[in-house]
Amino acid sequence: MRTLLATFLAVLLVGCSPAAKSPLSFQLPANWKAQHKLSDGDDFYTITAKKRADGLLTFSTFPPVSAAPENIPELVKGLADEYLKEAKNSKEFTVVSEDYQVEQFGGGQCQGSYATLQLRRGGANIVQALFVMQVDGRIWSGQFTGVPDAWKQALTVLKNLKTNG
User: What is the structure's pLDDT at 6?
Assistant: First the structure.
């Protein structure tokens, strides 16, 4: 599982090339911005609230090509467990609780699972959500960091993802 998390984080942190034709479409909340990039053949999305500190949603194609939709809840649990282990060493935030639930979400073309972790940063409550989803047969993974109300908006974006074309 450690390799899975390392791969997941590497995909999120790697520099990306200029935008290519976006394979997904979605509706953004008011004042949110989206950016799509292509990195080594993987699609990468960054969606931010008006103030980035309020909400940052990122997701990309999921590296393990063999990931099956029925394994999504288990993958999310593994990501959350690994995140909690690493988060104990953070100087930027504190983990409020190590308790979490793996929950399901879905829309017309998107189904997935997520875990939300409760953090505190600078006196503010922060949600760290980790998710894996399938959009029209293609597996994606990502995370959200921000205030609880922005997570609700970000989850609506995910539920409404559709493939272009």
Answer: 38
